Amino acid sequence: MSHHMGSRKQTKIDWEEVRHDIVGGIRSGAYHSAWYVKNWAQESVVHPTLSLLGFNLAEEKPIFDGLKVVGVGYGRTGTCSLRLALEELGYPTLHTQHLYENHEIFNMWSDEIFNPSIEADEVLMGRPNFDLMAERGFAGTMDFPSSLYYEQIMEQYPDAKFFLTVRNDPEVWFRSWDTLSKTITQPTRYWQFMSHVQQYNNYLRWLFSVVNRDKKYLNCDMPFPDQMKERAIASYEEHNRRVREMIPQDRLLEYNVKQGWEPLCQFLEVDSCPTTPFPKTNSARSLQIQTISAMAIPLTITLFVLFYVFSCVFQRTTNQSVLGWLGMKRLQILEYLTGREMMVQKRRAERAANKGRKQY
């Protein structure tokens, strides 16, 4: 009996967490959609106009003399939550989720690493320009692809500190990674006609080849093949083992985001540790909702705009609104159905009367 109750307790739904994931997912999806619209407007209309008028559009960002904090854990190990925490502590950090927002940095990765790998049909690691990230206002990086370059970064920035984010066990990590891979490939599959989506698609081809240790993803047809569980877990474990072996202990913090602020503040020698709850974001459920909303919101807006244009044209040509026309048609249909029903009832009554006369 107690075991049965215990199992029921384990499966109890945390509705507050569900609400947090839904709201966070919709908000993030809306943000991504809004960013693409804003970016298109700026690049196509605002910036060209202001440039013609002689305005200086250079965006001023702090320039760092190198990377200070570097996440070297695989994706889906709490890297997004850690990024938010680091930014709260004063370290602007570039996460893979926002790589597309930084054109110059993303183009560097594409030109130096992703595209050459696809063209050569071979996973190439190259030597990325991490100084570019510091020059563009980032004190740190988190998640893929930078987490794979810890040896280069360790050598290039001797004062940098590293964070190896981990999950409770490799099986938990793979389930989250597998969910991510299935979720984020949907937009890249259906929106490849957009240049930035194609660029992100090439990133995923390279990344999946690295994580699964199989180059078949580089030039395969869409949709992507499934993640290869045994290879991915072996890659995850080997990466973590190698990080522990290569990075000195005084520069490395092995960290689970469930540990909260204290070990993070101690490692970074922060005196006044935040008392606010530790950031929690980008769960698997939240990511799925985010992807759906990122696709649904622009589609909904597009359909609304098309309907508005159609309504304007319809009203000009027919002198009545679409809603008014629909209301009129609705009444006509109701009148037709009501009249038909009355005719049916009348015929039934006539048949019944005729039947009665015959019997009489």
The largest beta-sheet arranges its strands as: 2-3-1-4-5
Content-based structural category: mainly alpha
% residues in beta strands: 5-15%
What integer value in Å does the Rg equal? Answer: 29 Å
Summarize the amount of helix as a percent range.
55-70%
Low-confidence stretches: 1-10
Number of distinct helices: 12
Q: Per the principal axes of the C-alpha atoms, what is the gross shape?
A: elongated
The strand count comes to 5
Instruction: State the major sheet.
Output: 5 strands, parallel
- Gap between N and C termini: 75 Å
Which descriptors would you attach to this protein?
63% helix, five-stranded parallel β-sheet, mainly alpha, 360 residues
